[in-house]
Amino acid sequence: MATSVTSPDRVAELPTQSAARRGSAFLYRHAKVRLALLLSAPLFWLGFVYIAALVALLITAFWSVDSFTGDIVIDWSFNNVATILTQSVYQAVTLRTLGIALVVTAIDILLALPIAFVMAKVASRSAQRALVIAILMPLWASYLVKAYAWRNVLAEGGILDWTLGFVGLNSPGYGLEGTVLTLAYLWLPFVILPIYTAMERVPDSLIDASSDLGARTWTSFRTVILPLIAPGIIAGSIFSFSLTLGDYIAVKIVGGATQTLGSLVYTNVGTANNLPLAAAIAFIPIAIIFIYLAAVRRTGALNNL
Prior knowledge:
two-stranded antiparallel sheet, 1% strand
């Protein structure tokens, strides 16, 4: 009778293979453990590198700066917070930044709705793919390239000034209006894509049924489509609103003398060398975003994202 002989190397590999097989079987049976292991690295980066660094920055809002040496003094007080809450200049900048964010978000939503509808419900499959690529292409370009391109567009004698000249108008130039136009362009793809995704999920049968029952186009959109795509609109508005609140680069490039919360933070960090005051100013957009997310959450729209 033949006897099988196992080599020493093969014998050494058996415990390793057995342990690997047991580990694979364990992970297969415990999906939550598998998911936790997959998310551990990005969660570590988010929690200990990003959030911890942000918290450490915000803590400096309760410190002060030596007026003689310019060094940060760990002297705990609410002076910086009181300054941004009581001085009229910070109140005015906060209202201006909030207004810009709301206007930019409204413009992007109004532009994104018809574009997303055409992409999802009107265009053919090949045209749909081409439109998606066209929407994504601006995201491949550098942020600075797009911002400086709008600086040329808004300049006196630029393409916008030349085009509006045919109807007796002029370019808004560098300032508040130019900032709104530039930011609306920069964040438009981030608003179109979630609305398009939500629009694509709306069954065509519902739209056809609404039309068969005599509803006009606006009525069908308001009563059938809009409630179903509300989560996509909310998701897009979060992108546009939050990115506008924290932006300072476009404001520096096309904003002229316009001041926003982002530009104040940049000025206090780079020029005034007052990191504690900059950190206190940074509390304002963070608080606004939390209030906005809390208000959206109460509507229940985030449950369907």
